[in-house]
Amino acid sequence: MAAILHALQQELEDLPAQERRIAEVILSSPSDIPGWTINHLAQQSGTSPATVTRFCKSFHFKGFPDFKMKLAAELSHPTGETAYQDIVAGNSLSKIVEAIEANHLASIADTTRLLDLERVGKAIELLCAARRIDLYGVATSSIVTQDFYQKLIRIGKSCTAFSDSHMQITSASSLGEGDVAVAVSYSGETPETIDALHCAKQAGAATISLTSYSNNKLATVSDIPLFTSSLEKGMRRGDMASRIALLHVIDILFTGMVSSDFDQFIPKLEQSYHSVQSYRVHNNGGA
C-alpha cells in the first residue's frame, strides 16, 4: 500500500465524518483519483469542494491537485507492505542481510517519493540563514538529531542537539526571530518534542518537523513539516528502516545547505576535516 493510502487508512476512524467519507472513497478506488476533478470527488463522497480542500490540507497537501500529483507518483511505483521484512527466528545470515538491505532500500525509495521539494528548499534556506539552530529528539530520534548536529557543527553553524525534555524547553524559550528549531519524531506524537517545538514557535523561531507521513501533532505545530515513509511495521524491527529514512532526509538537508552556499560552507568543512586529521596524527603518533 502506498504511504499516502496507508496514512489515510490509519487515520480513518479519527477523521471528522465528512472527511472520513472522502477517505473511504479514495481508499475504495485509489487508481481513479488522479483522473478526477475536485467536484467529482466531492460528489462521490457527498461532500463539497471546500471539504475536499480542507481534507487535503489536514494531510499536509497544498490542495487537491497536489494530493493527486503525489498519489499518482506513489501509485506509479507500487510498494507492498510485505517489502518490509520482520525479524524471523532461525533465519540464515544471508537471509538477514537480504532482508535488511530490502527494508532500507524500500524505506529510502518510499521517503523520496513523499518529499515535497518546495518545502525541502524552504527548510534549507531557513537553516542556511539561521543565527542559531536547536535540534530536538528523544530516544531513537535523538540519534538522528545528533547526526545532524555533527554535520552542522562541521560547517560552522551554531547549533545544539537536545534529548532531555527540560533542556529542550529551556533552550526553546530563549530562541527568537532568525533562529530555527528542528524537531524529529518518527511517530510525530512524542509529547516532549511537541512541547519543545511549540515553545520555540511561540518564542519567534522558525520551526521544522521531521516525522513519518501522517496527520500527526508535531507536523501540525511546525512551519515546515517534512515526512518520511510510514510503512514500516513490526515490533521486532527496532525502528531500523525508519531511522534510515530519517537520516536520508537529514543528509538531503545537509547536502542542500552546502550546495546552496558552497563558497561559505566548503572551506569550513575542509578546515574541520584537516583539524580532526591533525588531532588524530598528534594523539596517535602518526597512526
Number of helices: 13
- Gyration radius, in Å: 21 Å
Class based on secondary structure composition and strand pairing: alpha/beta
Lateral arrangement of strands in the main beta sheet: 2-1-3-4-5
Largest sheet at a glance? Answer: 5 strands, parallel
Q: State the helicity in percent bands.
A: 55-70%
Overview of the structural elements:
This protein is α/β, with parallel strands linked by helices. It is built from 13 helices and 5 strands. It has helices spanning about 5-10, 15-30, 40-45, 50-60, 65-75, 95-115, 115-130, 140-155, 165-175, 190-200, 215-220, 240-260, 260-285, and strands at about 135, 160, 180-185, 205-210, 225-230. Strands 2-1-3-4-5 form a 5-stranded parallel sheet, with helices on both faces. Helix 10 (about 190-200) links the parallel strand 3 and strand 4. It starts with a helix and ends with a helix. It holds the Pfam family SIS. Keywords: DNA-binding, Transcription, Transcription regulation. This is DNA-binding MurR/RpiR family transcriptional regulator. One of its GO terms (molecular function) is DNA binding.
